[in-house]
Structures are given as structure tokens and as C-alpha cells.
Amino acid sequence: MLSYILTALLGALIALAVYITARKLTLKGQKEEIIEKAEMEAESLKKEKILQAKEKFIQLKSEHDKYINEKNSQIHEGENRIKQKENSINQQSADLARKIKDIDVQKACLKNQQDSIEKKAEEYETLQAEANRQIESISGMSAEEAKNILIENMKAEARTEAQAYINDTMDDARLNATKEAKRIVITTIQRTATETAIENAVTTFPIENDEVKGRIIGREGRNIRALEAATGVEIVVDDTPDAILISAFDPVRREVARLALHQLVVDGRIHPARIEEVVTKVKKQLDDEILETGKRTCIDLGIHGMNIELVKLIGRMKYRSSYGQNLLQHSREVANICSVMASELGLNTKLAKRAGLLHDIGKVSEEDPELPHALLGMKLAEEYKEKPEICNAIGAHHEEIDMTSDISPIVMIGDAISGARPGARREVIESYIKRLKGMEDLAQAYPGVTKSYAIQAGRELRVIVGADQISDDDAARLSSDIAAKIQSEMTYPGQVKVTVIRETRSVSYAK
Questions:
Q1: Neighbouring C-alpha atoms within 13 Å toward the C-beta of 297
Q2: CATH code of 347's domain
Q3: What's the mean pLDDT when you consider all of the chain?
Q4: Within a domain: residue 163?
Q5: CA-CA distance, 293 to 330, in Å (whole number)?
Q6: How large is the angle between the packed helices 143-175 and 2-139, nearest 10 degrees?
Q7: How is the chain split among helix, strand and coil, in percent rounded to 5?
Q8: Per-residue pLDDT, 309
Q9: Whole-angstrom Cα distance, residue 479 to residue 461?
Q10: Per-residue DSSP letter, 424
Q11: Which of 251, 377, 378 is nearest to 317 (CA)?
């Protein structure tokens, strides 16, 4: 039994070994077949890639040849253009040489003509001297005596002709004003027309009743003293019903005091600690409002890149007035006027508008109060890196320094136009009457003037002259003389029209 089992096991082992050997042979054949197939695919892929590379090379070579041809064509065209320019330059050189030769010939001719003229002038002087001697012998007087008589006889005629020439020249200037505008406006319309500003120094704060007034005063006046110390203003509490007065020369301080009082009255808590807290808060709010006002003004006018300190000064203009005219509104108006005038004259409108807006910043600065506001404004503009043209326009708009920029007279004129606009400013009655009387007295001082009247708020002066003492030509000359004297000796807003009236009346009666 055991032998059968061993025989069976041995047979199984032999069968297994035969199977393994056959399996290895089969796998080896498949491996060789796979390798052979892979080699064939690799060879095919290699040929395909080589073919693609050859096609790509041919394409790139074609493109390169095309590019080279284009460049060669461009180079050829450039060479042709250079040759053409060389030919043109050579032709111009030949023409120039020919012109120089012609000029030399003309110079020689002119020299000959000049020599001939000088010779003829000498002959003329000789003949003239001989003629003068003959005339003196015939007339019985010397040439000097005849000249004096002729001069005396021609004086009146010369005055008349001169006045007629002036009138013709002025008429011609008016007709040709558009052509001569740049030169005439820049060189002739240069005068200042503003005076020292008059500021409001008092603000009225309304209150409901005397109880609120007592709470503002506080025990033994401690509240009002604390408010005055915190704001720097003087608060006047008198018998005026339902109102107290806030007095200070600084309009910003008055505004801080007014806003602080308003918040304290609305809140109801009025004591020194609360007053200091509210005043500090109001100052911060007002500073923010001033900065926002300055920024909004610059944006509205299209002005950019301005130093933040200048923007704050522009915002402070809102709380300053001159002759009752709000300074910020005045500066905005001047900026727009300067922009329009610069545009008409072909100048830089942006610089003109910027200078017009900044021309009065010296009025709102707290530095160097001894300096005139125009010079102080120029100093601030220089400090904050504004352009020299703008700095000069600010400093020269009252003619306190020389004008070195074309926009400087434009700013001065814009300031005068804005201030002289009807209704823009108020004027103290005493100075108003004094100015009108000064105009009338100035005209009355001329010989031949019988009466003079300043009308239309001093913007027109009517002068009545005697018909037997002043001729028509003299009247025209008198109006020019009076206008020139007013311009040189007086300060006035806008312009003054001088009208000289001369009339002859003949009266008779039928009986």
C-alpha cells in the first residue's frame, strides 16, 4: 500500500515538473513575441517622429526665409529713403548757396545805392543852405525867427491833430482788440481795487428765556468764565432779551463758542467740566468740517495735489468775510474768473484757477500778523511747495511786489472784478462819502470845470465845463487827464467812467 502511495506521489511530482517546464517555455515564447512587437512599434514611432521633425524643420526654415526676405525688403526701402533725403539735402544746399550768392550781390548793390544816397544828401544840404540864405535875404528875418513864429502858429493845430490822432488810435485799438488782447490785457489792465477787509466781530446767540441765561452764567459766573477761557472769546450778557453776544476777532473761535453753547443748552448740563469736554469735541468737529470744506472746494474746482495744510486754510475761509463778502465764495469766484480769462488769453487755466483760489489765504493764517496778507499768502504757498508762478500771483495781487508771471495780473484783475461786482461788498458810509467827495474835488481843480458830480455809487464822474473856456478837443483831453489822475491817486472798486459835458445854449425871447 505504501509503495502505491509513493508511486502516485512520484508521478504527481513528475507531472508537476513537466507542467512547469512547459509553462516556462510558453512564457518565454510570449515574452519574445512581446519584445519583437514592442521593437516594431518603437521603430514605427521613431520613423513617425523623424518625419514630423523634418516637416517642422521645413516649416521653420520657410518662415525664417520669409522673415529674412521681409527684413531685406525693409532695409532696401530704408536705403532708398536715405538716398532720397540725401538728394533733397544736396538740392537744398545748392539752393542755399545760390541764395547766399544772390544776397552778396544784393549787398553790393545796396552799398552802391547807399553811397549814392549819401552823396545826394550832401548835395541836398548844400542846396538847402543856399536856399535858406536866399529866403533870409528876401524876408528880412533869420531862419531861427521864422522857425519860432511857425512853431507858435502850429501849436494849436498840433494839439488838435494830436487829440484826433489819439482818438483814431483808440478807435483802431477797439476794432483790433481781439488781435491785440494778449498784449493789451497783460500790459495795461493792471491795477488793484481792494481795500483793508472789514470783519464781523460779534455773533448773536439766541436763547429761549432768562433762566437759560442764568444757567450759562453759572454760580458767581464760573460757567461763563470757563467758557471764555476754553474758547478764547468774550461773552457779553446784558439786558438784551433772548440773546447773548459772542465777541472775538477770530471767526473760528466765535463759531466754536456758538456751537458749544448750542450743545450745552440742548443737553442741559452746564458746568465747567462739561464745558471743557464739549468745547474740545466741538473743536475736533469744526476742524473736520474745515478740512472737508477745503477738500470739497478743491474737488468742485478740479484742483488736485494740494498740500493738506493749504486745504485746511481754504476751509477756514468759510468763516471769514471781507466787506460782508464771504471769503471762500469770493476766492471760488476769483478762481473761475481767472480760469476764463486765462483760457481767452491762451494761458495755463489750471495755474490761473489755482492761484485765484489761493490768493487770499494770507487772511486766514495765524502766522506773522504783521505781514500784509498778500505777502503772507505768498510765504505760505512757497512753504508748501506751490509753483513760483502761483506764489508770485498771490504776492503781487495788491502790487506789493513786482509781477513776474503772466497769470499775476489776471489774479489781480479777477480779485477786483469779484470785489467790484454790484452787491458783493458793503462799504462804510464815511469812507464811501469821502471817496465820492475826493473824486468831485479832483475834477473841480481843473481850469474850466464849473461843476462835478459822482454818481452810480462812485462808478461814474460827470464833469460840466464852460463852453467858452473848453473846446470839444479840450473836453476829450480833459476826460483822459481826469481818468488818469483818478487811477494814479485814488483807490476805488472796479472802474470809474469819466464823462465831460460841454454845451452851448443860445436863448432869446419873442415879445
A1: 31
A2: 1.10.3210.10
A3: 78
A4: no
A5: 15
A6: 150
A7: 70, 5, 20
A8: 87
A9: 10
A10: S
A11: 251
User: Distance between CA 467 and CA 478 in Å, rounded?
Assistant: 13
Task: Tell me the angle at which helices 327-345 and 177-188 cross, rounded to the nearest 10 degrees.
Answer: 130
Instruction: Give the three cell numbers for residue 96.
Output: 542755399
- Per residue in 221-231, pLDDT (tens digit) is 777 787 777 77
As a dihedral over the C-alpha atoms of residue 28, residue 31, residue 33, residue 37, rounded to 10 degrees, the angle is -170
Domain range for residue 96? 47-128
Query: For 349-372, what is each residue's pLDDT tens digit?
Result: 888 899 888 888 888 877 756 678
Backbone angles phi and psi of 498, in degrees to 5: -105, 120
How much is the CA Rg of the chain, to the nearest whole Å? 49
CA–CA distance from 253 to each of 242, 325, 363 (Å)? 22, 19, 15
Tell me the three cell numbers of residue 238. 446784558
Does residue 354 share a domain with residue 287? Answer: no
User: Are 214 and 307 found together in one domain?
Assistant: no
Say whether both 384 and 314 belong to one domain. Answer: yes
Within 8 A by CB and 6+ apart from 338, the residues are 352, 353, 355, 356, 407, 410, 411, 414
Q: Cell match 464760573: residue?
A: 222
Read off the C-alpha cell for 272: 465747567
Determine how β-strand 202-206 pairs with β-strand 234-236: unpaired
Phi, psi angles (nearest 5°) of residue 153: -70, -25
| Residue 272 sits in the same domain as residue 345 | no
Are both 288 and 337 inside the same structural domain? no
- Which has the higher per-residue pLDDT, 31 or 282? 282
Per-residue cell: 245: 453776544
Half-sphere exposure of 385 (CA within 13 A, CB side): 5
- Distance between CA atoms of 253 and 263, rounded to whole angstroms? 15
